[in-house]
Amino acid sequence: MSDSTTMTTMERLKSSTRAMHKAAEGHPFQHALGSATLPLAQYRDYLGQLYLVHDALETGLRAASGHAAVSGSVTVEQFQVPFLHADLASLEVDPASVRAHGATQAMVEEIAAAGSREPASLLGYHYVLLGSKHGGKLIARNLEKRLSRSVKGGCSYFDPYGERFMEVWLRFKSGVNDAVFSTGELDALLAAASSMFAGVGAVGSAVLSHVPTT
Length: 214
Prior knowledge:
Layout: H1 9-16, H2 18-25, H3 28-34, H4 40-63, H5 68-71, H6 81-90, H7 102-117, H8 122-131, H9 136-147, H10 165-178, H11 183-209
């Protein structure tokens, strides 16, 4: 294993979040989502919660576009709100009607505060969510088989780029690795990534325990 002083920023992100990543993948919600056994009402709910989180994050990233590390790493193409809008529309959900669970609201507030305090930290949250597309293709394939029985579309969020994903991911990766971070910025970035993994698990738990009215 490389010494931490010789690791790239992306390698440090991966190393520092390895345990959190493993825990997130083992969460019961992720098993239900990945196997497409999650009830449709809860799937709608989850996409709505993701919409709120991404909306907060992408609002922060736009506001932080004057920060060199953010502008050098993040492109509009990486934003996920348009895909979530399309999926929610397919599932007949109005984004304006989505109400945050407690775990979601906590993440939204944390992202807003972190972006104001240290804009570079937003890259840590973004790393986790954009990186989730690595396993998204399989999730999308399983969801498509199930959703096609009742609705058209509804799962573009998990595989929005098709064969172009690695191109999009490597653009982000190279930008982060080329950026120069202060010790405080790097610490905030790494902490944000860990927090996002924990937050995704908390949102999943909230969705599982919530019984939608529709």
